[in-house]
């Protein structure tokens, strides 16, 4: 080491960094001998800090959204009953503004349940295919496909929906093309990876003895899947569906591009509709902070938060059933 | 004389002094607001920064409401809006100074297959309020009318309702925020009608409608014959100073008003022969 000479070449080569590293390594070794308990404590504080930050972020968002969302009822005197039961939404009418969000709440639930209806059989079917029918090659093909679906940004889903799906429905099914149906199809594809991934995990974590026992009793493969494996995995499969629904409920951009954003209650699948999220994203930028219009949008955000809490409670309930 | 802005807002700016020449401007500036104005202001900011390398201007979109709110609370120096601050609830309009930088003309756009080029204002109102539901009643083909609206709080919608529909509330229809999407839907859907700024009528995909026989041209807006137009406002909190003032002066300069605005499809505010106040009253200038 003492014969080491500095030449510009060495410095360019990055040897200087090596020198520095060696010094710091020496320091590090000296220090580490100091106190072992010190490190334990520091590690504990570090992870507690992480947990505290996460918890306080969630609480802060809840409090913020709560205070903002309640403003329209407390400060602006909008009736809560009218807000969630009226079908007339007309906040800019100066003579008689109306704040009924029922069509949007209905739209949100409609696309959520309908897309779950499409995605659940597909996702669970795919999971069974990957774990039971073709565990090796099936999984090798399907897994990357599913992962690819997760990686596509929602705006791309929306754009494909707008340029391909909407004209297709307009020409082949009827209506304007902008419809609950378009929203449902786009959302189904979007939540498919969530449902499939969790369903696959739950199917493959079932104990092998279940399958062996069933075969030993003379059951065929399909009987085993239908009568033994699916019932055993059911709580987790339901969790998978609910998680997919939670994602569908909160999705805004892709839905906004294909659903048409009409403020009336839809009477058929081919009618244009609107959801809570699409109305928020459409109007938020145009309203001024603190105005009634702005506050009612926050109230819709609060409804979304309450609903996502409900979804979480449902998931907790479903997974607690599994343990029994 | 050329750059004098006859703004109703009472701003007194001495633009004749320098046309972005003279001393170099430095400092940073954040602009937010109207997404309709964003391309124009961003293009102007780029040219301004090329002339003044020490200046740094950030132009964000976000909507007129966001622009007005942010400039009122002081988080940006310039807030762009499609509507007068007085028209928005919760904005201290008396603290804000209005700089009208451009004018935009708006008219109804129909699918070319509808077969009409002109509509009376009465019929336009009937079409948009849902009293007429088929184009054959106003001289077009036998096609069902499909409305394409803008979001409730949108500035374009407010202008169209006020000056195109005489304040009537339009019937329910598809609602889209972006002008490009509106154009795409009107182009693809039989019987569709929406409204767009003049700058979107560059091809044959949608047909702009004349109203009461007055063609939607720049000249007719400038002379006050065509009713549906609006100012594009840049608001500052109090009189602007430093980089904000220099940039606003640049927006009113010959370079922007007579060249850039034309390229972007806006009308120069300096050429208007009529003016309007926040209540919508139109007077000769």
Radius of gyration of chain A: 27 Å
Low-confidence stretches of chain B: 1-21
Biggest β-sheet strands, sense, barrel of chain B: 10 strands, mixed
Spatial order of the strands in the main sheet of chain A? 1-2
The CATH superfamily title of the largest domain in chain A:
MetI-like
Count structural domains of chain A: 3
Mean pLDDT of chain A: 86
Number of helices of chain B: 8
Mean pLDDT of chain B: 84
Strand content of chain A: under 5%
Secondary-structure class of chain B: alpha/beta
Specify the CATH class of the largest domain in chain A. Answer: Mainly Alpha
Quick structural gist:
The complex is a heterodimer of chains A (about 325) and B (about 280). Chain A is an all-alpha fold and about 325 residues long.
Could you describe the 3D structure shown?
The complex is a heterodimer of chains A (324) and B (285). In chain A, helix 7 (154-172) runs parallel beside helix 11. Chain A has 324 residues and is an all-alpha fold. The model of chain A is unreliable at 1-21 (pLDDT under 50). Chain A has 13 helices and 2 strands; from the N terminus they run ααααββααααααααα. Chain A is globular and about 75 Å long. In chain A, strands 1-2 form a two-stranded antiparallel ribbon. Chain A has 3 domains: 1-33, no CATH class; 38-78; 98-322, MetI-like fold (Orthogonal Bundle). Chain B contains 8 helices and 14 strands. In chain B, the strands form 3 sheets. In chain B, strands 1, 2, 3, 4, 6, 7, 8, 9, 11 and 12 form a 10-stranded mixed β-sheet that branches. Chain B has a two-stranded parallel ribbon with strand order 5-10. In chain B, helix 4 (155-164) links the parallel strand 6 and strand 7. In chain B, helix 1 (38-51) packs across helix 8. Chain B is elongated. The two termini of chain B are 15 Å apart. The A-B interface holds A 89-93, 162, 167, 170, 176-178, 257, 260-264, 272, 274, 282-294 and B 35, 61-66, 68-69, 73, 88-91, 146, 151-155, 158, 169, 172-177, 181, 184-185, 188-189.
